[in-house]
Specification:
The complex is a heterodimer.
Chain A (H helix, E strand, L loop, with lengths): L11 E12 L2 E12 L3 E5 L6 H9 L6 E6 L2 E2 L5 H8 L2 E4 L11 H11 L5 H14 L16 H13 L5 E5 L7 H18 L2 E6 L2 H7 L2 E6 L2 E7 L9 H8 L15
Parallel strand pairs in A: 3-8, 3-9, 6-7, 7-8
Antiparallel strand pairs in A: 1-2, 1-4, 4-5, 9-10
Helix pairs in contact in A: 3-4, 3-5, 4-5, 5-6
Chain B lengths: L3 H29 L6 H11 L4 H23 L8 H39 L2 H7 L4 H38 L5 H11 L2 H27 L4 H32 L2
Classes of the chains: A alpha/beta, B mainly alpha.
């Protein structure tokens, strides 16, 4: 890993050491180390199937790693029981790739869900906050009574973002936030992410392979390849680095150290 | 021996499934007794399991009672025992046909719907979203369904018993020429509390099996629409087989009382 990981004077919000995860014989994450500092927006880039989603699920406690530690604010969450994990997750907000809104609930109830269920906020107050958050992502009151099936992909993402920020989380996670969106809507979502992270004073961790989006929303970028972080550094150094993996990935080149299989036999 | 390896693999696979299902069932049961409770969700599921199943269970029960009376008559007439028809109808319906047929019908209707709903939530990451919103899916999704199944199936079976016996009465009185008052008297005189109780115990067990199978297969579905389809089929098939298996086990238990 590059030596540019340390940011003096900043607290580490997420500290990952020796993270290893395999599915059968296939090793996805292999002794991975990564630090995410409080208040920064870190984007993890990497090709499809390199383990970005697995990394995110290990951090969120949705997958149990085979080895290694994931510390959130100094507490190792690997092996926590479900009640303790719930307490940790109360400080999280998460925007899923396809928003993952609850089909059976209205938009207002979706956004208010975490406030009511996990934070015990009275329904009336939760709905007031939910309307505020919907307004913050550019969706007015007229959307509140609609169901997710009635919204476009871009609107669903915005509702997902409103739901993620409704509980004023310490850490926000974004899984491929611009996937499936047109470039204009992708830009809108990126701006909302930057605004939300800044306004909340939260830490942001995003995984994506959309380089334009990564550059717009990140303070630092980390490149995941072969189960490890092969490079990490400030966003403005991404273009200057001589790391061959980064160079090949951000320029979309076939030739280079990243092995691209065009065969359909796997 | 080359035959031993596949046999061993099959045994290990079977034990893995049994282990996974046992852990799932244990977790589901433990969350039925631990707060927070969701009374509104339980009520919603009770309406889904009970109220919306009434037409299909009612129709099944009335035709079963009618056929039972007719077939019993065919057999009993051969040795002049037609007067035993009310007794056979009440015992068969309350002890056996009411709970089993209601269970199988609800497995097809509700078990499939639960597997499809939870399976869709799984493949669209809605269950992961529940976890990230610090809400345990076992508390929010599984426990209300299991509680609703265990509470509602006995009520549904009571209704099925009544309708089934009424079906036997209709055929016996209007087609076979029984005296209505005698038929009702014979039915009430012959019926024992244990007949009804054993049926209700079966119904509660079937309610647990149906909801558990629907939730289990939905919760573990993978791979998009195809996975959800497979989960739905597996939920109905496994619930039906388990209903028939536990029907024998519970009957055996009551047989020795």
């Amino acid at each position: 890993m590059s030596n540019k990981t340390d940011i003096p004077g900043k607290d580490i919000r997420i500290k990952i050491r020796g993270l290893t995860k395999a599915f059968g014989p296939k090793v996805i994450l292999n002794n991975l180390d990564l630090d995410v500092y409080a208040g920064e927006s870190l984007v993890v880039i990497g090709g499809s199937g390199t383990g970005k989603s697995v990394l995110l699920k290990c951090i969120l406690g949705l997958l149990r790693p085979d080895a290694g530690t994931v510390e959130i604010n100094g507490q190792n969450i690997v092996g926590l029981n479900s009640d303790d994990m719930e307490k940790v997750r109360r400080k999280f907000g998460m925007l899923f790739q396809y928003a993952a809104l609850f089909d059976s609930l209205t938009i207002l109830d979706n956004v208010a869900f975490g406030l009511i269920q996990a934070h015990g906020v009275p329904k009336k107050e939760a709905h007031r906050i939910a309307l505020e958050k919907l307004s913050a992502v550019g969706l007015g009151e007229r959307f509140a009574a609609k169901f997710p099936a009635e919204l476009s992909s871009g609107m669903k993402k915005r509702v997902g973002l409103a739901r993620a920020i409704a509980t004023t989380p310490e850490t926000l996670f974004f899984d491929e936030p611009t996937t499936g969106l047109d470039p204009v809507m992708g830009d809108v979502i990126d701006q909302l992410i930057v605004k939300s992270v800044k306004e909340l004073g939260a830490t942001g961790l995003t995984i994506t392979h959309d380089m334009d989006s990564a550059k717009r929303i990140s303070d630092r970028i980390a490149m995941l390849y072969d189960g490890k972080i092969t490079w990490v550094g400030p966003t403005d150094e991404l273009e200057k680095t001589d790391n061959p993996y980064v160079h090949q990935f951000i320029n979309g080149l076939l030739d280079g150290p990243i092995k691209v299989s065009l065969a359909h036999n796997d | 021996m080359p035959i031993l390896q596949p046999l061993g693999n099959l045994t290990l696979r079977f034990l893995e499934i049994v282990g996974r299902l046992s852990i799932f069932a244990g977790t589901a049961i433990s969350h039925c007794f631990r707060p927070p409770f969701y009374p509104k969700l339980i009520l919603k599921q009770m309406i889904e399991v009970g109220y919306y199943s009434l037409p299909v269970v009612g129709l099944t029960a009335i035709f079963t009672g009618m056929v039972l009376a007719l077939q019993s008559y065919t057999g009993f007439a051969r040795f002049s025992a037609e007067s035993a028809i009310p007794n056979v109808v009440i015992v068969s319906i309350t002890r056996e046909l009411g709970p089993v047929l209601a269970g199988l019908m609800v497995a097809g209707r509700v078990g499939a719907a639960m597997a499809a709903e939870i399976g869709t939530m799984r493949v669209t990451e809605q269950i992961d979203a529940l976890y990230t919103l610090a809400t345990n899916p076992f508390k929010y999704l599984i426990a209300p369904r299991v509680i609703a199944g265990v509470l509602t199936l006995p009520l549904l079976v009571l209704v099925a018993d009544t309708i089934g016996v009424f079906g036997g009465y209709l055929v016996s009185v209007h087609k076979l020429g029984f005296n209505p008052a005698t038929y009702i008297k014979n039915t009430i005189d012959f019926m024992e509390n244990l007949d009804v109780i054993s049926g209700l115990v079966k119904a509660a067990a079937f309610g647990f099996i149906i909801t558990l199978m629907g939730c289990y297969h939905g919760f573990h579905s993978r791979g998009g629409a195809q996975g959800v389809g497979a989960a739905t089929t597996n939920a109905v098939v496994s619930a039906s087989i388990l209903i028939l298996t536990f029907n024998y086990i519970i009957t055996e238990l009551f047989f020795s009382i």
